Amino acid sequence: MSESDQSRPRITFAAAQQQDVIALAAESLTAPLELLSKDTDEKEKPKPAPSKVDVDEHLLTPEELIARYNVNVNLLKPAQSVGLNAEEALKRLAEYGPNVLTPAKKVHPFVKWLHCLSQIFNVLLIICAILTWVLYGIDPLGNAPNSYIGAILFGVSLLNATIEWYQLQKSAAILESFLAC
Q: pLDDT tens for residues 119-141?
C-alpha cells in the first residue's frame, strides 16, 4: 500500500453489527410487500426521484461528513469504527429506501431501430436512393439502371440499420445480465 492509502481512514463494521443490519434490512425489505396488500388509497405516493442530485461529499473533510450523516467513525483508528447502529440503519432504509440504482427507462425496440435508421450514414444512403428515383422519374429511358441503384442504396441503409440495431440489442442484453447478478 502507498502512504496515501494508509493515511486514508477505513470504515468497517463489527461482524455482529453487520449481521444485525443485514437481518434488519432483510426484514424491512418484506415490508413493501405488506404495503402492496393494503388498499391503494391508504398508501402514500412515493416521492419522485430528484432530477438533479447535488453531490458534494468529495469536497468535505471527514469531520464534516461525520457530522452531516451522523455516523460513528473513529478517524484515528478506523478499524475500531462502528458506523451506524442497527436502528439507525433501519430508519434510514425506511426513509430513503434501499441503496440501489434506478434502472433506465426501456425504449421500444422499433424506436431503437428508427434511431439506427436516422444515423447520418443511413440518411445519406436514403437521400441518394431518393435522388436516383427522382432522376429515373425525370428521364425513365436514360436512367433505367438508376431505379435498381436506388433500390440497392435503400436496401443497404435498411440492412445497415438492422445490423446496428441487432448489435445494440445484444449489448443491452449483456448489460442486463451483468445488472441481474
A: 999 999 999 999 999 999 999 88
Helix, strand or coil, per DSSP, at residue 18: helix
Q: Is 100 helix (H, G, I), strand (E, B) or coil?
A: coil
Going from the C-alpha of 142 to that of each of 77, 133, 149, 157, the distances in angstroms are: 88, 12, 14, 25
Helix, strand and coil percent figures for the chain, each rounded to 5: 65, 0, 35
* pTM of this prediction exceeds 0.70: no
83 forms beta bridges with: 72
Tell how far CA 9 is from the center of its chain.
30
**Residue 150 near residue 133 (C-beta atoms within 8 A):** yes
Asked whether the CA dihedral 23, 28, 33, 39 is positive or negative, the reply is: positive
Cα angle for residues 155, 156, 158 (degrees, 5° grid): 65
Write the pLDDT tens digit of every residue in 87-126: 888 998 998 888 777 777 889 999 999 999 999 999 999 9
